[in-house]
């Protein structure tokens, strides 16, 4: 972990978005510093590089109160990490709205989605099954997606889901890279 990646490692852009207060900045600095920072609603975006296995992730954390600016960060995104507060069922409609809006944007065509169901340490959080049902995630056919229950106030090694989130991201960006390479090859040979 940490930001000291070697130059040979591929760098992947991760877009960390979600409604305000879901825990994005907490999660980002938990990954970067292995500690809980006192986060206030972000009024700009934070960018940090995190190393995991053979990958370097450049993570863009864009505040939930800055939804109108999310679009300016879409270009060249390798994976979307959408953070939700899994204890807040009244937010589900807004989350569905934001996801649908995002999926309509051509810049994000085929970009995989990691939905991070945060705050699992709180009482009665939604688990994957409920989230998949409520957000109708099974209707997503044109990109890989995965729901990861998580507790961002716990370190990667404490088993709160952050490690599994990193594993998913590294697997999925590798998969996407291979698929993109294959597509390029097919395009070249069909010319
Ligand atoms: N109990 C609990 N609290 C959390 C967790 N993750 C974040 N929080 C708290 O949730 C609050 C909001 O966290 P932030 O990281 O500021 O949320 P954000 O998504 O960056 O919010 P914006 O910048 O406004 O978009 C803070 O008080 C965090 O301490 C978690 O896993 N469990
Ligand atoms: Mg924030």
From TrEMBL:
Keyword DNA repair among record annotations: no
GO molecular function, one term: GTPase activity
Highest taxon above the source species: Eukaryota
InterPro entries on file: P-loop_NTPase, Small_GTP-bd, Small_GTPase_ARF, Small_GTPase_ARF/SAR
Amino-acid biosynthesis recorded as keyword: no
Residues at which GTP binds: 18-25, 64, 118-121
Record-stated family: Belongs to the small GTPase superfamily. Arf family.
PANTHER family cross-referenced by the UniProt entry: ADP RIBOSYLATION FACTOR-RELATED
Record-given protein name: ADP-ribosylation factor-related protein
Gene source species: Tieghemostelium lacteum
